[in-house]
Amino acid sequence: MTTRHASKASKEENRLPMAPLLALAMTGFICIITETLPAGLLPQMALGLNVSSSLAGQTVTAYALGSLLAAIPLTIATQGWRRRTVLLMTIAGFLIFNSVTAWSSSYWLTLTARFFAGVAAGLAWSLLAGYARRMVPPAQQGKALAVAMVGTPIALSLGVPLGTWLGGVAGWRSTFSVMSALTLILIVWVLAKVPDYPGQASQDRLPLRKVFTTPGVKPVLAVVIAWMLAHNILYTYIAPFIRQAGLLHQVDWVLLTFGVAALVAIFIVGRLVDHYLRPAVLVSLATFALIALLFIWLSGSALFICIGVAVWGLTFGGAATLLQTALADTAGDGADVALSMNVVAWNSAIAGGGLAGGALLNWWGTSAFPPVMLLLLLAGFVIAWSARTHGFRPGSRRTKSG
Questions:
Q1: Residue 371 exposed, middle or buried by CB count within 10 Å (0-12, 13-18, 19+)
Q2: Which of 151, 171, 177, 333 could make an S-S bridge to 25, C-beta 3.0–4.6 Å?
Q3: In degrees, to the nearest 5, what angle opens at C-alpha 332 toward C-alphas 93 and 143?
Q4: How confident is the model at residue 202, as a pLDDT?
Q5: d(C-alpha 76, C-alpha 86), whole Å
C-alpha cells in the first residue's frame, strides 16, 4: 500500500502543470497572431486606412521594431518585479493596442499602436521561457518549455489562416477585436491558474555585458541568427519560391503543411530536449541543410517541394524550445537577460531574412535561396558542433541542471 501511494505521489510530482503552461502558450499564440495578421489583411487594411499596401505593410515593420528596441531594456528594468505582474502587463499591452488598432481610422495612430504592441511582445518573449522553467523541476524544464512554445506553430498553421479568413468575411477590424476578446479571456486565465514568482533580488542580477560574455551565450545566439536567417529567407518568400513548381495557387496548403509538421515537431522535441538537446539541434540543422541542398536541383518538382516543406517544418518546429533551453541553461542566473537577447537576435533574423531574401530575389531570383540557406545552415552547424563545452553540451540536462 505504501509503495502504491509513493508511486502515485511520484507521478503527481512528474505531471506537468498544464493549465499555467498552456496560458503561457496562449500568450505566445497572441504574440504571433498579432505580429503576422497584417500580412494576410494588407489590402483591407490599406483600404480602411486610406494608404498604399506598402505603407500598410509597415505595420508589420513597426511591430518588429518595437520588439527589437524594447526587449532588452524592459527585461532589465523589470527583473525585480513579480513575474505575474510583468506577464499581466504584457497581456494588457496587447489588449490596449489591438483594441486601438481595431478602432483607429488614422494610419499614424495605427502605426504607433502596432509599435507598442511589439514592445509588449518583446517583453513577453523574454519572459515566457524563464516563467515556464520555474514551474517545474530542472529535469522537466525542456518539456515545460515545449508546452509553453506550442502556441507558435498553432498560430502559424491555423491562427493566421483563420484570422485572414475572418478578415475577409467580417472585416480586418473585427479580427483585431477578436484578438482583444481572447486577451481578456487570457487575463482571467492567468489570474486563476498561473502561479506568481518573485523577481530577482538585486544582488542576484547580472549586468548585460556579463551575461553576453558568459561562455556559450554568444555561440547559441550565433546559431539562432544563422538558423533563423536561413528559415526566414525561405518562409518570407515562399510564394515566389514555389511558383517554379507550379504551386503558387496552393501557397496556403504549402504553409499549412509546414505548420502541421512544425506542430508535430514540438511534441517530438518535448520528449527529446531534456536528454538529447545537442543531437536534436545538430540533426535539425543538418536535415534542413540537406533539404536546402536538394532544393538546388529539385525546386521545380511539386512533389519534392511538398516533401521538402514538411521536413523543413519538422526541423523548425522545435527550434525555439531547443535554442531557448540551451541559452537559459548556459546563462544560468542571467537567463532572463539572455532570453531578451534571443528576442533581439530572432527578430533581427526575421528582418534580415526579409531584406536578404528580397535582395536575392531581385538580383538572381529564387534559385539563389537554397545555396545561401545552405551556407548559413552549415555555419550554424559548425558553431553548434564547436560549442561542445559551453552552449550545446552533450548528455542529459539532468546532470547539468541539478
A1: middle
A2: 151
A3: 70
A4: 62
A5: 12
- Under 8 Å between Cβ of 387 and 271: no
What does pTM read for this prediction?
0.82
Give the span between the Cα atoms of 244 and 367, in whole angstroms: 10
State which residues of the chain have pLDDT below 50: 5-10, 12, 399, 401-402
**Rg of the chain, C-alpha, whole Å:** 21
Q: Give per-residue pLDDT as tens, 127-142.
A: 888 899 889 988 888 8
Within 10 A of 96 (CB to CB), how many other CB atoms are there? 16
Model pLDDT for residues 26-76, shown as the tens digit of each residue: 999 999 889 888 877 777 888 899 988 778 877 877 888 898 888 889 988
Tell me the backbone φ, ψ of residue 364, rounded to 5 degrees: -125, -10
